[in-house]
Structures are given as structure tokens and as C-alpha cells.
Amino acid sequence: MISSLATRLAHSLVSLLAVSLLCFALLRAAPGDYFTTLRLEPGLSPQTLRSIQQQADPRSSIVQRYVLWCASALHGDFGQSLAYHMPVRALLAERIANTLLLSGAGLCGAWLLGLLLSTLRGRPAALVRLFASLLWSIPDPVLAFLLLWTALRLHALAPLPIGTASPTASWTQWSDFVRQLALPALAMALGYLPLVLRHLQGGFDAAQHAPAVEAAHMHGLPQRVVLFRYILPEAANPLISLFGLGIGSLLSASLFVEVLFGWPGLGQLLLNAILMRDTNVVVAGVFCSALLLILGNLLADLLLWLHDPRLREAAS
Amino acid sequence: MTLPRAALIFLVLYSALFAFAGFFATADPAAIDASLPYLPPEGIRFTSPAGQFHLRPYLVRPRPVPGQFAVYTRQDAAFIPLRFLVTASSADTAVDASPGNLHLCGISGGAPHFLGTDEFGRDVWSRLLYGGRTTLAIGLTASLAASLLALAVGLIAGSAAPWVDTLLMRLVETMISVPWFYLLLAVRALLPLRVSPWVAVAASTALMAAIGWARPARILRGVTIATHRRAYVTMARATGASPWQIARWHTLPDLAPQTLTQFTVLLPQFIASEVALSYLGLGVTEPLVSWGVMLAAAQHLSTFVEYPWLISPIWTMIPFFFSVHVLADRASSLRPLTLPSLSRHWYKLPR
Asked: What would the pLDDT profile of B152-204 be if each residue is shown by its tens digit?
């Protein structure tokens, strides 16, 4: 039964390898690089340019470069950012922290709100269903736009800090920082909420009529016991998958929100790096977010495997 | 009338607005009017300045405050009678180059600005229609291409040899394990940043199709495999039907509802991606107009607040998304496609 997990792990590794190859190939094939824009700089002499170029590019074959890159990536070293003149790792670490904070807050908000709303019954539940359906039909970027518009309309009533985020703020500026986080995090949460709600409501509705639950009811078990011992485990499987997916997309879901709300996260860094042809940063950013996505899926599989005895039995 | 049918009818009528943008537009979307930058939406009145009722509506055009940029006053606003079914030459409007082109309405000596103008005095209403045409064309083409590609891959993976299946599904898994918008951006980086607008349109469309097919392909492969386990496929195989015949008469009809569903799921996603890409400066570019290009003009928050009519593409998109969503719900509950010819025995039973 461990072997099925090992197979899953091997699949993930193959995916990761393919992803790294893909990123690398794409960016090697890109016409023009960081130096094409640098060449237009009038204040830079050709000698200086050549020396910078030599520093960055030790003239090796693509295969060598790929292997070298993989080796250093395993150490968490993604080279030097050409545009920012600093190690990609340091650059990425700060931005990844910001993005994790933003999407983590969004994800937690969506789950909390979803759990809260899915406990409703009767007419409010129907309203929530309608609300979720409306939210569901609006794609995330448009939703973020709408939220920004609403916030700006309310701006006159209660000043909201928009576009001036500085998450490196010290503890004394903590409250200010939370206020800055609120809007983009809300945008993330609203984008994610309908998915959560749909899974929660669907899962619980299905679980209520599961044979095991009905049997437990007929045996006259107390309501609480039925809920925690029968309904929750029955409804948990799709929720666990969704949770893993949510963890996996922490780094990649927020690009547009970050750009729109001026949040200095990974997505914004990546966009700028693409515009400036800063290859190392692009590859590292895409690689990290893909890595997290793969890990998230793996985590979901592991949790499912731990939770559901049927999966373990099927494997053994 | 059921909700899905109403949504379908609405969608057809709504799309006609953009398909016949030339008729409904009141101005050339690229025509610059330096005298009217950031003009607020003009009102329509059925009463003359004197207060008398008129059947022919008036367009109320605010007057620019002399000496100030983009400041208008409603005092002494001009009341311009609106004319219907005008040709470009007869109304002397600034409508597109082809004279004799019929337009729904116009005014003499200029163009009505129902939704105001942008920074360069370009008519927002006309840009909205022409931009919608670009955006919807990109979205429709890309989602059609992606769903057809997904159908082909799903069908092949589900019915071909196991090694083909494994290979295709590994490819799909790799594509799914890269965040798809990041992948879109990274592949977009392959192209030079400044390309001609039409190349940019073609590139965005092709990229979305090339990246969006992976997830639907996996779902369609699952449906294919489920169909192949059905008794009627076993029976068809036993009576000597070729794989092609099985695909034509059993698998494809079974795949039709799910393919349609995937198409309706991809469509809003691709429209939003066009908007996001163009907003970030990587999609459609000026002088072409799309909803994303229009929103990119409202990038500064101050513009957002002071000239709220510039984000009208958002309000235009939302009814579209709602109705597509209703159709997607309906499509997912469709029964497999059955053609009248299917009731006949199409393959020869062994004698």
C-alpha cells in the first residue's frame, strides 16, 4: 500500500522535471534577452556591456546550462536577477511571503465564510445559493475589478488604503498593514468562495442521504454524533481534494489581484520580469508555483489516503 | 419560457449588438476628438430647452468650461436633435470611413457620445461595441479551438493503445501542474513584446487554445473510457465495427454534451483572460480596441474614480457571463446526442 503512494510521488517528480524542462525551453527560445534592452542604454559602453554579459553567461551549451540550473535549483539557488542585481532567492523569498500572506488570508476567509454560510437552512440558504451562483459566473479578474470599483465608490464614506501596500511594515504599523491587506484578500476570498460553497453544500446534501447516515439516524443516535461521526467523514473526500488544490494554488491564483491592487507579491514580480526579460526570475517564479501546485495535489492525495480506508484497501 | 431558453435568446440578441457593431456604433472607434476629452455620458431628453415635449429625443451635450481640461458644465448645455437610421454622409457624423454606411442614430455635425468619451475624445459606446467584437471573437475562437482539441485528444487517449494514453495524460498532467495563467504569460514572453496588433490578437487566441485544452481533455478521456465499457460498444465490437465506426456512432454522440459544457466553461474564462492579458499590456494593443484595452486606459485609480464611465466594459461583460453560466448549467444535464440515423442498424450484421 506504500507502493501506490510511491507511484504517485514518482508521477509528481516526473511532472516537476517536465515543468522545469518546459520553463527552461520556453525561455531559452525567447528572442531578445535582458541585454537587448541594456544595449539601448546610451550611457553604457560596449566594454562594460560585454563584461556584464560574460559575468552572467559563462558560455556553455544549453544542456549543460539546464543541468547546472537543476543542480543549483535543488539547493534553492536560482542565480542572479539581472534587473534587480540581487540573488533571485532573496528577491523571491520576500515576494513569496507577501503572496502567501495574501492568498492565505483569502483562502482562510473563503473557507470560514463558506463554512458559516453552508450551515444556513431554508430561505437564507436559497439566497446564499443564488449569491454563489452569481459569483461563480463572474471570472476572477472581473470580480476583482468590481470589488475595486465598489471600494472606490465607498472611498468617500470610509477611506480605504488602496495601492499603497507596504507589507514590510514593522509591528507598529501592523494595523495599517492589515487594513491594506483587507481589500485584495477579500477579492481573493470572493473569487474562491463559490467553489468552496458549491463543494460544501453539495457534499453535505449528498452525505445526508447516504445509507450509513440514514442507518445511524434509524438507530436513534444523537444528532451531534451523527453529524461528527457519520456525515462529516462521508462529506470529507471532495473537501480534502479541494483543500489540497487550494494549498497548491496559493502562489499562482493572485497575479491579477496583485497587479490591480498594487500588492508587491510574486505575480507582480513575475509580470515585471517577463516585461524586462529577466529570465532567471521568470523561470524561478514559474517553477516555484508549479512546485507548490504539485505538492498541494500530493498533500491532498496523502490526506485522502489517510482519511479513506477504502483507498488503502484498494491499494493493498 | 425556461431560464436556459431565455438566456440563449438573450445571448443571441446581445451578440448581434457586437456582431453588427458598425450599425449600432455612433462613431469610428478610433476617431479622436481633441475638443471633448473625458466627456461624461450625454443624457437624452424628450423635452426641448423651453420645456415642450417632443417625440424626437434631444441629446444633451455638456459645454466645456473654457480654459480647463476635461471640465464640463450642464449650464447652457446644447440640445441636439437625435436622428435615426442615418448614413455617414447624410448625417455628417464622424462614423467610419465607408460613406453610405447605415447607422442606428447620429447627429449632424459630430457624433453622439451616449457613454461619454475617453482621454482622446474617442466615443466609449462605439469602442465598447467594436471592442466587444474583438474580445468575443477571440474568446469564441479560442474556446472552440480548445474544446475541439480536447475532444480529439480525449477521444484518442481514451480509445488508442495504452502507451498513447499514458503519453498524452503525462503531457496533460504537466500542463495542468503549471499554473495556467503563468504559463500563458511565460509563452507570451516568447513573442517580442511589441508586435503588430493583429499578430497579438492571433497570438493571444492561439495561446489560450494551446494551453486551455488540457483540463477538458482529461474529462473527455474519462467519458470516452466510460462509453467504451458500455454493453453496446462491446456488442458493436463483437459484430465487427471498426474503431472509427465506434467513435463515429457511439463515442462522439456520448461526448457531445460534455464537450458543449467544457466549451461554455472555457468561454468566460477566455474572455476574462483576454481582458487580463490586454490589461497587463500583453494581449491586444492599440490601435485595435478590445474590452481589455479599454480597461487598461483606466489603470490609474484616479481615472477610475473621476471618469467611472471608462469601466463600462465590466458592466457589459456581466450579463454575458450570467447567461453563459445558465447555458453551461443546462449543457451539463443534456442527454447524449442521438441522431435519427442512429436508430437504424448501420453496420452489417454477420450473415
From this structure: 999 998 888 889 888 888 888 888 877 778 877 777 766 776 678 888 888 88
Sign of the torsion angle spanned by Cα atoms B279, B280, B281, B284: negative
CB contact under 8 A, B181 and A252: yes
- Angstrom distance (rounded) from CA A185 to CA A194: 15
Nearest to A141 by CA among B15, B280, B310, B18: B280
- Stated as kind and residue range, the H or E segment containing A31 is none
CA B23, B27, B29, B31 torsion: positive or negative?
positive
Q: Would you state the cell numbers that stand for residue B73, as one nine-digit string?
A: 458644465
Separation CA A186–CA A164 (nearest Å): 16
For chain A, positions 130-159, list CB contacts with chain B under 8 A. Answer: 133-134, 136-142, 145-146, 148-149, 152, 155
Q: Which three cell numbers stand for residue B227?
A: 462509453
pLDDT digits (tens, 9 = 90+) for A158-194: 555 554 444 454 545 666 677 778 888 888 998 888 8
What sign does the CA torsion over B164, B165, B171, B172 have?
positive
Q: Are the C-beta atoms of residues A231 and A216 closer than 8 Å to each other?
A: no
User: In this structure, what C-alpha cell is assigned to residue B15?
Assistant: 451578440
In whole angstroms, what is the distance from residue B62 CA to residue A199 CA? 52
Phi, psi of A123 (to 5 degrees): -65, -45
In the structure grid, which three cell numbers stand for residue A84, read together? Answer: 534587480
Residue of A nearest to B170 (CA): A15
**Within a domain: A65:** no
Domain B126-344 in CATH 1.10.274.10? The answer is no
A95 and chain B: CB distance < 8 Å anywhere?
no
Query: What is the per-residue DSSP string for B43-105?
Result: EEEEE-TTS-EEEEEEEEEEEEPTTSTT-EEEEEEEEEE-EEEEEHHHHT----SSTT-EEEE
Residue A56 lies in a domain: no
Is residue A101 a part of any domain in this protein?
A: yes
Residue B220 corresponds to which cell in the numbers above? 473527455
Residues of chain B contacting A272 with CB distance shorter than 8 Å: none
Pairwise CB contact (< 8 Å): A152 & B268 = no
**CA separation for the pair A127, A133 (Å, rounded):** 10
Cell of A69: 540550473
Rounded Cα distance between B331 and B186, Å, is 33
Q: Model-level pTM?
A: 0.82
Q: What are phi and psi of A47, to 5 degrees?
A: -65, -45
Cα–Cα distance measured from residue A69 to residue A16, given in angstroms and rounded to the nearest whole number: 14
Interface test with A, best of B185, B267, B271 (most A CBs within 10 A): B185
What is the CATH classification number for the domain harbouring A249? Answer: 1.10.3720.10
Number of domains in chain A: 1
**Bond preceding residue A194 cis, omega within 30 of 0:** no
| ipTM of model | 0.77
Q: For A32, which of B170, B192, B275 is closest by C-beta distance?
A: B192
3-state secondary structure of B334: coil
Spatial CA neighbour of B316 closest among B185, B93, B142, B134: B134
In-domain check, residue A229? yes
Which residues from A are below 8 Å from B168, CB to CB? none
Domain with CATH 1.10.3720.10 in chain B: 126-344
* Range of the structural domain that residue A265 is part of: 88-315
pLDDT in tens, A43-100: 777 777 777 666 666 555 667 777 777 777 777 777 777 777 788 888 888 888 888 8
Measured CA to CA, the distance from residue B77 to residue B63 in angstroms comes to: 5
